[in-house]
Amino acid sequence: MALPHLLQYRFQNGAGGLARRGGVEDGFWGRNAGDVKCHPQEALGCRRKRLQKAWRIFPGMEIISFMSDKAPVGRLKRNPTLMLAQRKVYTNVTCQGEKVTLKLRLENQVQFGEHHALIGSAECMGSWQHKVMMRWTETGWVADLDVDAGAQVEYKYVVVLKDGNLRWEGGPNRVLEIPHQGQFEVISHWDNTQEQVLLNPQHEKAVAETSNQASPLVANESEEKIGNGSHLTADGYSSSTTFIQEWKGNEVAFMKDNSHSQERAGKWDTAGLEGPALHIVEGDHNSRNWWRKLEVVRTLLTSNEGKGIPLDSLVYSSIYLKWINTGQIPCNEDGGHHRPNKHAEISRLIFRELEWISSGKNTSPKEFSVIRKIHPCLPSFKSEFTASVPLTRIRDIAHRNDIPHDLKQEIKHTIQNKLHRNAGPEDLVATEVLLSRVTKNPGDYSEAFIEQLKLFYAELKDFFNAGSLTEQLEGIRPAFDEHQVSVLDDFLLKKKNLDEVGQGSTNGTAVKNADSLISTLHALTSLRAAILKGLNSGLRNDAPDEAIAMRQKWRLCEIGLEDYSFVLLSRFINALNMAGGATWLAEELRTMKIEKWRHSLAATVLGIRQLGLSDWHQEECMALENELMAWQAAGITGKGSEKDTHNWALRLKATLDRARRLCESYTDTILHLYPESVQKLGNALGIPDDTVRTYAEAEIRASVVFQLAKLCSLMLKSVRTSMGGAGWDALMPGKVVGKLVEVERIVPGSLPSSESIILLVKKADGDEEVKAAGANVVGIILQHELPHLSHLGVRARQEKVVFVTCEDEEQVARVRTLLGQSVKLQASPDGVNLDPYETKAENELTVVTSAGSQERAIGEGSLGSRTPLATLSKPGPVSQSRVIVSPPGVVLELSKAVTANAGAKAAACGKLAVLAESSSKVFSELGVPAKFSVPKGKVIPFGAMEAALQDSGDAKQFYSLLQNSETGQIEGGFLDNICNELQAIVSAQRLPKSVIDDISSSFPGDARLIVRSSANVEDLAGMSGAGLYESIPNVRPSDPETFGKAVAQVWASLYTRRAVLSRRMAGVPQKDAAMAVLVQELLSPNLSFVLHTVSPIDQNDKIVQAELAVGLGETLASGTRGSPWRLAAHKFDGSVRTLAYANFSEALIIQADTVADGQVVHKTIDYSKEPLSVNQDYTKELGQRLATAGFFLEQKFGVPQDIEGCVIGKEVFIVQARPQP
Prior knowledge:
This protein is an alpha+beta fold. It has 34 helices and 39 strands.
């Protein structure tokens, strides 16, 4: 056969990265190591013409070696830097088909979201063209390869960064001389390419055959992966997954007599422990063997006598059981004698308790997720295992006459006697190792013996619930009805066909694989749903033991199916990347087609359905499924007049962002539940640090959520690419310089004040105070989307803080590389750029445009000093309104409210009520009405709170604390304590009965009201105070206690830590702050909106920008992750553009049949049923109405307005107007 050809290049500039270079055919690839290797399947390759083409693209390229079985091409002299250095014959040619199994294990930790891969000379290593992804395990990153026997291979490890780029390890290539047969493992260490290479054989290790000495053996690893991680050997027996593949315990010690060691090593440090952690550590100290350890868990989970199991008890139990099943908490002999039926009985009690919790109506998604981790760690309690003498087959095997005496003794003392005295997970490990050993050389032992040992192994796997997915499914077939059997057969057939198709290596094969993968995933989902339907009936108290045992098998099967969906999604993503990945999908979308998106959308829907079937936020999962299917069905042209690819992409982006948030909620839950508990329990029990450190990450990476998040991120990248976006959004444009610092959240008073700071913020609710975190904050980069008109966005604009968001993970990863450095942040409506401050000329900036390209621009003015263009100084003192205190007991009509006696908000509402009457007579030039309504209201004026303090006798203490709040230090919690005491005093005040009666008589008896703040330090031109003070919806004056508490809560919001710090920053004395209360009829809107009458980003005064959300306006104001609909409506020509589609998961609504107790109902939103997402005519009509009403109010108030309102049917209501910052 023809020899492969290899040509190596070196680039003088060291450029690299596994990426196709423009204009160069397959085979020219760069590496950071400096080499580029030609495609091995090319003929002589690198012909003169191709080299000349390479010259034109890489003028600094230098040939350093040429390997061929033929003469060299010769010296090409066009470029003097290109020179032929040496000729070498490429000799690693072997007969195809002779393979050696090689397991490469790399011991290295990477950042969360990064992965390891390898690239090498062999075809199975990517032929220097494609990276081969490695899988993460708790013992390192692993790749299983079939390499040509006798070959010499070269390779290197790489880190696949979050942005998809590669980081190569340094040094020369690693070189391996492959033996001519066998299975081997190589353990490597990152960046140590010249370390000694040890090919560790993966068959039996040397056995020390002494009577009392252990025989360390490991399982045969020459296996073909099948099912959900299970393995099939050449003999056909299926090995364990849960125990064998994840076993971290001691190697099996085969004994030839009964002198088992009674010594027990361990650590049981109870210092500082309490509750479940203390129970487990103390219990484990007193429990040497497996059944006693199971009993520790049982007593913990059943100690509440039917009152439910605390979540932390479930968490600690799941950790403890996993470490037992992986051998990291060893099970030892204790001199007792308890057959496996003891373990089975304890398991049944635990299982019953878990099932009762799972069937409860109030069981949370967190509880469901933890319970699902416990089930696979419990043994079976089928009738054959609860019998008085279970698993007797091993006794007959140990007394056979057709096996050697030494082998009999090993079986008897290592498995039989141990199993019947103190069964434990190590017995399954020992049995598999034994089976691997006796089947290694066919003919060494009788077929009858082998057959019986395999049968026993299958029984033992059944007892430990460690069978493959197929085995477990076949085990419950007898309990299926006709329909369920049909669904089972369909899945098993498709799974078998898929396994036969293989991963594929070409674009066409990848697409074919995608068809098979999606078909199998559909079948899996149908089967899992059928099983869950059978489980949904719950567990009766009088259920017979056999029914409970079968229920356990059903439960494990549906959990196993979820695990296998992880495998299918992983393979689908690989196939998608092989076909071209994000670029492939983006190119399709640019041509106004979505056919290539069909599989990706289907995989996403099915992945989300897996989460729903696992009881993870089921309503959210259903809404997401509906949206994705609706967008796919609508296609590019959509419905009605919508024919815009951009709109389809925006709509899809909103749903994918929402789906990724769903994945993040699971990740956040795991990170909340596990790390601290794992740390406590691990330290107390002496678990290795690496296991403790990686536990939570392992749980996340092993979940279907991990693959779903990867798929969502890939498609989001495609959408952004197709729309020409880079993931950036500028909420407050400007140019600033400061030190880049990352924080979890914006916390008041949390930053040092020594230098200018640009914050990289992980999460924000939209209700934070920017400058309260530190007067030196000059810029903010938020790592997720935020409504432009949120309180946080408004405050950033008012305080002149440059504010951008970035939702692209790759961009965020690049930003993180600049942490701790002085950087220059420039934001404009056209793009965002972040650079090290010292790296470029002071008058030259690089602007990343919305299309992702770069262009040069001359900076405006000198940036030579460290003072940013956005001011660093405190804003000047705000002139709060003059306060007129009304007599005690006074309630104002809305029309009588003025700024002096009721605050700017109430006064504006009074003026709005007057303007509402005239608005019905005003129309735009296009005939669009400006008409709006204002809800009825009354005002509790300034002075009412102070009067209540005097009446209660709390005034003296209140004013003393108020004086201390002027100077209270932030550090040490002093200010926090003062604010808490102030709020406690004010919250205890109550209105006089006469005031409540007056308000009650002004509204219908069943009216629901909203109690709103109207302070003298909000809604001002220099201080909006947006979202700083409380509003309490859904109260009735007919319930005076609830109503009085709501008013007091609004008063008390004047003294929150955030409000006090905000006034300090604005130069407003605390004693001058006053609070009135605006009481209005509560509307139950279809939509709520915030509207700015001048575009807040580019200051276009012809454009009104509105943000809308379903339900009450609190969703828009603060506290809810997600994005609103964003409309840009022209004031004069009637054009309306949708800038973003909404993806808030929930709406806040008022239900007529609920108690008016100040609470609202959270309702999951399905945007495929919302007119603003599916009806362009409705969107245009509403946008024109809002633009006309906004322009009308702008004219009447004389300045641009920040307006809040809602839509009920076709009627627009305005509830607030204030000067736009």
